[in-house]
Amino acid sequence: MADQKNEKPARPQGTQGGWLSRIAPGIRNAFAKRETPENLWVKCPDTGEMIYRPDLEAALWVTPSGHHMRIGAKDRLTITFDDGVVERIATPHVTEDPLKFPDDRPYGERLKAARKATGEHDAMAIGVGKIQGQETVVVVQDFAFMGGSLGMAAGETFIKAAHEAIARQCPFVIFTASGGARMQEGTLSLMQMTRTTLAVNELRAAGLPYVVVLTDPTSGGVTASYAMLGDVHLAEPNAMIAFSGRRVIEQTIREILPPGFQRSEFLAERGMVDRVVSRPDLPAMLGSILKTLMLGRARSRAA
């Protein structure tokens, strides 16, 4: 009897959904919860300010505070070339996981996850187009792809891009962003430092400009090789540029390093970087440099 007394009467058929549905059956759908993209707002790493994503994209991923956020190969190539017109060059395929590297997650799975996340085959991508009217081969290193690490595929991509520049008789520009060599490939990764250096020498022998744009972060074996072999070195503001980390250096020399150490402005003051250039100004700056260097090359050949 107690169970029957506490039992709630069934709602009459046709009244499901509450009083609002009974008064105006279609109004609930009109005010249904809309799906909002999770990445519609982006947090500024410097200030914590929430920035509307379309506004940030329009500002080339530079926040109101001036922080230059990391961007992938597709965005970088689009904003670098005139009118965003890019001819993509396929990256070479190499043997994957040649050392059968033991890890808590198979190397092959890491590669698949990185490719899915970035849409790129490996950490480097090649594009050909015009920068301020000057045809140029551009390589972009994507930090989102396993930290932009230098492995066999990246080394082969760099060499292919250098040979493409030589074949087209045009300048070579690289945007670096890397944590260094790819540990899953061991010595084979370290060998790419030498191979890319030889490719830079081929560009020099052909009398073609090689310009490096250092972005955040550029470190390790990349800094120890092709990132510091350019004819001109530009850098984005506040980019971390180093060989080893600040903490490692401080523990080694047992001294506190000065503020801003290993940042692009600090290195520009000491001559390691030629100029710090904001992202919106990079295409015009690159165009001016490349035209000047190619003009000098043409005069040299004529002489």
Give a written overview of the molecule.
The protein is built from twelve helices and nine strands. With 303 residues, the protein is α/β, with parallel strands linked by helices. The longest helix is centred in the last third of the chain and has 21 residues, at 282-302. The chain has two domains: 38-69, no CATH class; 70-302, 2-enoyl-CoA Hydratase, Chain A, domain 1. 38% of the residues lie in helices and 16% in strands.
**How much of the polypeptide forms β-strand, as a percent range?**
15-25%
Number of domains: 2
- Rg value: 26 Å
- Cα shape: globular
Just give the CATH class of the largest domain. Alpha Beta
In total, the number of strands is 9
Which strands sit side by side, in order, in the main sheet? 3-4-5-6-7-8-9
Task: Round the mean pLDDT to the nearest integer and report it.
Answer: 90
- Range of helix content: 25-40%
Q: Mind describing the biggest β-sheet?
A: 7 strands, mixed
Spatial gap, N to C terminus = 111 Å
Record keyword descriptors for this entry.
globular, 303 residues, 38% helix, two-stranded antiparallel sheet, alpha/beta
What is the secondary structure topology, with strand pairs?
Blueprint: H1 2-6, H2 19-23, H3 27-30, E1 41-43, E2 50-52, H4 53-58, H5 73-80, E3 87-89, H6 107-118, E4 124-131, E5 134-141, H7 152-168, E6 172-178, H8 186-205, E7 210-218, H9 220-223, E8 232-235, H10 246-253, H11 264-269, E9 275-276, H12 282-302
Parallel strand pairs: 5-6, 6-7, 7-8, 8-9
Antiparallel strand pairs: 1-2, 3-4, 4-5
Helix pairs in contact: 7-8
